[in-house]
Amino acid sequence: MVKKIFLISVAIILIGVLILGGCGEPEPAAPAAPAEPAAPAEAIEFSLISWTPPGVEKYVQLEEFAERVKQGTNGKLTVRLFPPGSLVASPMELWKAIAAGVVDIGSGPRLDVSGRDLGSALEVFASDSPATSVNVYLMHEVYDKFPEYQEEWKDNKILCFTASGTAYIYTATKEVRVPADLQGLQIRLPNARWPIETMKTLGGTPVAVPTSEMYMALQKGTVDGTTSPFDGLKEHRLAEVCDYVTVVGCYAGLAPYMGMNWDSYNNLAPDVQAAFDEVVAWYMEAEPQLCDVVTQAGYDFGLETGTEYIYPTPDEMAQWDAILVPWKDTICKELDDKGLPGTEVRKFVEERIEYYKSQMK
After folding, report:
1. What is the pTM (predicted TM-score) of this model?
2. In what order do the strands lie in the sheet with 164-171?
3. DSSP 156
4. In this structure, are residues 131 and 232 in contact, taking their beta carbons and an 8 Å threshold?
């Protein structure tokens, strides 16, 4: 848990004493000019673009984040929220836009693929994660333990990993119980290498479609299905266009983040930076719990609207594992051959997942 650090700034006032000396009658001193009041420090405004639309729970939490920053810094720093697409055209561009100073803070999925071999594979390694909050913890734990993962995030300051839930298989009209049922189906996925390759390995035809176009693609029949965590049923209205959800984890949503331009952060005055860090610490504690609330709300919404959840039988699940387990071995080998700790990261993630599962019993 992030330790809270309180820095109290102390103003030291030095009083100079002027001693006049000399012979004879001193000339009357000229009246001192009245001291001009010190100009108040100019308030700083940071821009924050979120790829979560206004009105949903996570956007509301960002609004609280902004208010806490204003209160915690006594108005010296304010954060102005911008909705998706207002400052940056797409989430694909967000990470680089933060680094370039186009925006001070960004919250959304990391969709640029260059130099993210380990991060993309991590999403597949964590496909058996039991909760969205666990995905948040896993991202922080891997970040703290593996410098190679830190390297992939070095361009900006990570304020908090936000994560999304485990991605399951949604289909518009066809039930999918075993991998063979995916044959001939076009399944929408995010633009991430290993999740796309995983769908190919399972037998489906992956189609890279932005989240903003996912609903329309399903409604028009451009794709037969998609992958999404449970919150997509409500937040992205997938319950309206998908009859079935096959509860087999293809990958976990270990791409979302809340990042900040390094110069914007480093140029803050020490007292403002300390107060800002306190609010970030609050956000890091609140985010995992909110993630689980949002996931549960999506699942419940699916039940209310008639979505059919397909839980494979043990025999059916064995067919999925027969493909997914050796596929993860293949990913590990490629990473290991590149000098990245693929096998080590996978082992660590799977051990942590088992730990969290034991805590949830």
Report:
1. 0.84
2. 205-208, 186-189, 225-228, 164-171, 244-253, 308-310
3. S
4. no
Q: Write out the DSSP string of 234-281.
A: HHT-GGGT-SEEEEEEEEEE--EEEEE-HHHHHTS-HHHHHHHHHHHH
Q: Which CATH number fits domain 44-360: 3.40.50.720, 2.40.110.10, 3.40.50.300, 3.40.190.170?
A: 3.40.190.170
Amino acid at the residue 46: F
Output phi, psi for 30, to 5 deg. -65, 140
**Cα separation, 157 vs 263, whole angstroms:** 9
| Half-sphere exposure in the Cβ direction for 231 (13 Å, CA) | 20
| Amino acid 41: pLDDT | 59
Q: Which two tokens stand for residue 114?
A: 């260059």
pLDDT per position as a tens digit, 73-121: 999 999 999 998 889 988 889 999 999 999 999 999 998 878 889 999 9
Which residues are bridge partners to 47 per DSSP?
Answer: 80
